[in-house]
Amino acid sequence: MENEVMSLKEDRILALLNDAVGEENVSDRDAILIAYSRDNQWPFVPPHMPDYVVRPKTTEEVQNVLRIANRYRIPIIPMSSGINVRGLCIPTYGGILLELKRMDKLEIDEEMRAATVQPGVTIARLVAECAKHGLKPAVPGAPATVSPVSNYMLRGVYHHITSEGIDQVLTATVVLPTGEILYTGSSAFPNIDPYFRYFGPDLFGLFQGQPGTMGVVTEMAVKLYGMPEKTEVMNNFFGNLSDAMRFTNEVGKA
What we know:
Blueprint: H1 2-21, E1 26-27, H2 30-33, E2 52-54, H3 59-72, E3 76-79, E4 96-99, E5 106-109, E6 114-117, H4 123-131, E7 135-136, H5 148-153, E8 169-175, E9 181-184, E10 216-223, E11 225-226, H6 241-253
Parallel strand pairs: 2-4, 3-4
Antiparallel strand pairs: 1-2, 5-6, 6-10, 7-11, 8-9, 8-10
Helix pairs in contact: 1-3
Domain FAD-binding PCMH-type: 45-227
Family: Belongs to the FAD-binding oxidoreductase/transferase type 4 family.
GO molecular function: D-lactate dehydrogenase (cytochrome) activity; D-lactate dehydrogenase (NAD+) activity; FAD binding
């Protein structure tokens, strides 16, 4: 009897997820789930399959999925571009693997020097699009296929700036576990460009360093910088690490 009840519940959840994002964007087949069960770069977290893979396209679809998960107490594991490192996206307790690759909107605002990106946008695409406008984003020391949304949230290391990834964020749209939507920074006000993060309390600071555990970021506005007129590559050699660090510090002050 208990197995029958569980089966009916699972069928009900699957039907609700199908309604939320479309049947073609939901799977509970082992052949699909196993691809999301491991992290090839981090073998210390044992593989574990999710119960469902769900691929939303819009913030509203993410909202509907989180409402279902909240109602039935199902874990949610967001995945942006699919560069899973250190076991962050391994669904250790099963649940819904929320693959966000279909959310790939990218808009460049030259005047505000800001880019609005969704989780499915890669750093490579962002850099290429910004270059068309004579601009560039903060580029992390990570694969070109990584998502700036997840990378900036996790405070990555960057090539041409001394600040952290979290400092690149201007505004964000976050779907909370209850399905409520939180708009941070100037995006909390209608008809205002995404130009300022600290519009009152720094609400986005609550999500700093959390890879989807407190909410799902579906859109983010990030800072852009002007492209230099000229770049040169310079090789430097040092006899010891202390000299190299001293040189780097002096260059940073210039």
